[in-house]
């Protein structure tokens, strides 16, 4: 099978490419614009494999998408490319709308023209919005996104589904919970807390830190996507969760315990606007229809992730230089310290 992977230089996309090349016989063409979040260092372990090709480009570029599909004649596409960070989408919504909506539309049109056999659209549990305990969203739960990021993902999900309904295109949608693991860009909660803790910097916890997220090890997510790519039913949506819900503050305490750093590093700061209190989803459907299960226990996965950040301090230093500092100042500079 030949697969075009979009966004394969990012956190989850690169884990998927490493898995597809390392553990399957797939051929992979990775189309990535190399935004701040795209990093070819994530792919050095497989970059010379004859089944792998990298193409630098924008998924919004219709001519490029068309010529790439004509040249490569892929069997499938797995679409990860996105502006993926909620805080950045709040600071500046325009790139989110462009890539997540326009980019998805451009790929769907390319897939339609070239009669692609399988289009897996990678989405998120954030489209369901905040749920009161003990509710869990299944795939029929209403969409209720809160941020420009999650609204753009909900919009692109609906667009992808419309191509199944209208054009009978073989579209499948996955919605995963919060991923963590190696190569995670240190703007998201876990890699930011790990990399700050390792450098004895403050750990900025939004609001009271009691917001709940469900944590999914990135390789479990990638195996779930492979299961959907191979065995999912066309037109269907599949949730992929880690089955490990935790308040943010518990996650931060675990990071401090494993890194051996003091709790005094925790700094409560002004909350994220429109902050969703709790995400929770059921992955029953994927487990019923395939043999997929989340395998990684959270404490083991977090320990491995922290080991990776300790061992790869040069990677961290490179991605935290330059534009990262500007972003950090913009997102955290005006946040006031608040009491918990
Ligand atoms: P990421 O930000 O780490 O990587 C995004 C990648 O997309 C980067 O390599 C970037 O260069 C590329 N990209 C961005 N705009 C592009 C464009 N216009 N054209 C081509 N490439 C472009 O993101 P991630 O965390 O790996 O997330 C990947 C996907 O998974 C996203 O669609 C996201 O919505 C979804 N998702 C993420 C999570 C999570 O916890 N991170 C959970 C569920 C779903
Ligand atoms: O649920 C899936 C989603 O998970 C994905 O669709 C997104 O792409 C991904 O970024 C992630 O979104 P979140 O907003 O949940 O992730 P983030 O790591 O940014 O934040 C996790 C929680 O931690 C959230 O409640 C906000 C909080 N937080 C985050 C940061 C960066 C803090 O308290 N302090 C911080 O500095």
Structural class: alpha/beta
What letter string, H or E per element, gives the SSE order? EHEEHEHHEHEEHEEHEEHEHHHH
The number of distinct helices, counting runs of at least 4 residues, comes to 12
Largest β sheet strand count, sense and barrel closure: 7 strands, parallel
Low-confidence stretches: none
Distance between the termini: 52 Å
Radius of gyration over all CA atoms, rounded: 19 Å
Number of strands: 12
Bound molecules: nicotinamide-adenine-dinucleotide, 2'deoxy-thymidine-5'-diphospho-alpha-D-glucose
The dominant shape is: globular
* Helix content bin: 40-55%
Q: DSSP strand (E) fraction?
A: 15-25%
Strand order, main sheet: write it out: 3-2-1-4-5-6-10
- Average pLDDT over all residues: 98
């Amino acid at each position: 099978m030949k697969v075009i992977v979009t966004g394969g230089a990012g956190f989850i996309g690169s884990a998927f490419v490493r898995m597809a090349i390392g553990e399957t016989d797939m051929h992979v063409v990775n189309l990535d614009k190399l935004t701040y979040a795209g990093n070819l260092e994530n792919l050095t372990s497989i970059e010379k494999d004859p089944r792998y090709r990298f193409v630098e480009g924008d998924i919004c570029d219709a001519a490029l998408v068309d010529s790439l599909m004509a040249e490569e004649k892929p069997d499938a596409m797995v679409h990860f490319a996105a502006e993926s960070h909620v805080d950045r989408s709040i600071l500046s919504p325009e790139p989110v709308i462009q890539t997540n909506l326009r980019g998805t539309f451009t790929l769907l049109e390319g897939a339609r023209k070239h009669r692609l056999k399988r289009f897996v659209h990678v989405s998120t549990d954030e489209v369901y919005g905040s749920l009161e305990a003990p509710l869990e969203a299944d795939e029929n739960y209403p969409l209720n996104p809160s941020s420009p990021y999650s609204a753009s993902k909900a919009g692109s999900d609906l667009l992808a589904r419309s191509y199944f309904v209208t054009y009978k295109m073989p579209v499948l949608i996955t919605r995963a919970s919060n991923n963590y693991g190696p190569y995670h860009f240190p703007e998201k909660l876990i890699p930011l807390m790990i990399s700050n803790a390792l450098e004895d910097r403050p750990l900025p916890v939004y609001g009271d830190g009691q917001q709940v997220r469900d944590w999914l090890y990135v390789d479990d997510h990638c195996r779930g996507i492979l299961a959907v790519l191979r065995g999912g039913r066309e037109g269907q949506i599949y949730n992929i969760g880690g089955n490990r819900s935790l308040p943010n503050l518990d996650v931060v305490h675990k990071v401090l315990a494993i890194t051996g750093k003091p709790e005094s590093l925790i700094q409560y700061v002004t909350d994220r606007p429109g902050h969703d209190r709790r995400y929770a989803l059921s992955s029953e459907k994927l487990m019923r229809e395939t043999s997929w299960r989340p395998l990684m226990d959270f404490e083991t996965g977090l320990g491995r992730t922290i080991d990776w950040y300790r061992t790869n301090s040069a990677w961290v230093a490179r991605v935290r230089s330059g534009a990262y500092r500007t972003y950090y100042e913009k997102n955290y500079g005006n946040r006031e310290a608040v009491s918990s």
